[in-house]
Amino acid sequence: MPKPESFPIDKIYVPVKRKKALKPALVQEIAESILSIGQQAPILVRSDEDRFVLVEGLHRFEACKALGEETIIALLVPAETAHQKTLLSDSAEAEAERDKMARLKKLRLEKEAADHLAAASTAAAKPDARELRQRPKGLKAIADQSHRSAAASRFNNTSRPKTLSEWITQQKGNGGRY
Fold it and tell me: CA 126, CA 132: separation in Å to the nearest integer?
């Protein structure tokens, strides 16, 4: 079991792939913790010619760096162990990314379903053009509609004349002039 040692921060290289996973809020939280109680868990590094490569502990490393520390407590691990840790963290990161994408897809589908339902209920609540034409508005509209319906009933009456001569006869009988 390797023993924790103090390593110069400027001699530790952070792979670009690891930097992408950096969460500034977490770095801030860890930095505050380090200020109050010190660094409790060492980071893991491996040797690479004249420098060290960060294997695990990105947020602790960045927190110490942000605090202006010149050294950090770390465990020097062999390259094989570092490779295994990298594979494990990569698979864990990949799994976390898949979970995140699945959650996002589920949320997107739920939102689309809710939007579709809202659109359908809005469409059902809106009257169509025929209903708007048939629906009276105000007292004048009601009066107009009753006059129209009376005229329509007279027009649709079965005693309606079928020929001009029948109409003339009907008009004479009603006291009208033709």
Answer: 10
